[in-house]
Design goal:
The complex is a heterodimer of chains A (about 110) and B (about 180).
Chain A lengths: L1 H21 L1 H8 L2 E7 L2 E3 L2 E4 L4 E6 L8 E2 L15 E5 L4 E4 L7 E6 L1
Parallel strand pairs in A: 1-4, 3-8
Antiparallel strand pairs in A: 1-2, 4-6, 5-7, 7-8
Chain B lengths: L1 H16 L17 H25 L3 H27 L8 H18 L3 H30 L3 H30 L1
Helix pairs in contact in B: 1-4, 2-3, 2-4, 2-5, 3-6, 4-5, 5-6
Classes of the chains: A alpha/beta (about 110), B mainly alpha (about 180).
Bound molecules: copper (II) ion.
Chain lengths: ~110, ~180
């Protein structure tokens, strides 16, 4: 009885592993990318970006003045103040409009799809 | 020649003071500012907006006005630090001149007017002045200081400041608009 169970287990385990590896979740993990948004001359560049769920977006402040990255509703997420030359990253799960709360005329969009 | 230059600089200073009214006469002039004088005018123009912000921090209770004033103080300080560092690197000592003097004289008048106000009247006067001041400084940087600058690095620095000034102007206009709806 025990040996039958072992045999089943030996066959099933690799199958289970294969299934896991082939699942969409694992595929997404492998494909997750890092995107760069530069903050320069008082603009987010690119100001409109399309990413996959789970991708990382790195914001790099190339200006001499401090900026931040604030989700448009002001409730979901917000970066700390980003001084000159500093960076901040966020893993994106849902689409968002964002702006700089220090310079509200600076705006951007990230579409997650 | 010396006195001619003096006259030119004096004319320039007068023209600068009417920039707030949308004058573009400066483009026709033939001013004579050295890089050391341009550096002085640039630092002074930034310091003046820091001074206005300090008055706002003292007098305003409006959160969007206070936040704007804080951005002005921080951004203009960052620009001054950059300008001072570059001047040092280039061994240029900012030199006082008629443009700097005119900027200072105008600023003193504005500061007195701001200090005389309080409450909502102060907020309005401060933001209205920020709109006018940034408008005139953008024109002065673009049409006077940049063309007057010989050194490429100093010129690049001045050019890189323009987008920040423009963002400040749009921000001030946004607050001005919000206030008019209240
Ligand atoms: Cu900003």
């Amino acid at each position: 009885m025990f040996s039958v169970l072992m045999a089943v287990y030996k066959v099933l385990l690799p199958c289970a592993l294969l299934l896991l590896a082939g699942s969409p979740m694992a595929a997404e993990k492998q494909a997750s990318k890092t995107h760069r948004v530069e903050i320069a001359q008082m603009k987010f560049n690119p100001s409109s970006l399309s990413v996959r769920p789970g991708d990382t977006v790195v914001f790099v402040n190339l200006d001499v003045v401090t900026h931040d990255v604030t989700e448009a509703s002001g409730k979901l997420w917000k970066s700390p103040p980003l001084a000159a030359k500093s960076t901040w990253k966020k893993v994106m799960k849902t689409s968002a409009n964002y702006y700089c709360s220090l310079h509200p005329v600076m705006k951007g969009t990230i579409t997650v799809k | 020649m010396k006195s001619l230059e003096k006259i030119k600089t004096a004319v320039l200073a007068c023209l600068l003071s009417v920039f707030a009214f949308g004058s573009t006469v400066l483009a026709q002039g033939n001013p004579t500012l050295s890089d050391a004088e341009v550096a002085s005018a640039a630092v002074t123009a930034n310091q003046i907006d820091i001074d206005f912000a300090a008055i706002a921090k003292e007098k305003s209770k409006d959160t969007q006005v206070l936040k704007f004033a804080e951005t002005m103080a921080n951004d203009h300080r960052a620009v001054i630090e950059q300008a001072v560092a570059l001047a040092k690197k280039l061994s240029v000592t900012p030199k006082d001149n008629a443009v700097t003097q005119q900027l200072k004289a105008d600023a003193e008048k504005t500061k007195a007017q701001l200090r005389a106000k309080s409450g909502k009247a102060f907020d309005k006067a401060y933001i209205d002045n920020e709109v006018a001041y940034h408008t005139s400084v953008i024109s002065a940087v673009k049409d006077l200081l940049i063309p007057e600058t010989e050194n490429e690095e100093l010129k690049e620095l001045l050019m890189s400041v323009v987008p920040a000034l423009e963002a400040h102007l749009e921000h001030a206009k946004m607050i001005q608009h919000n206030m008019s709806k209240k």
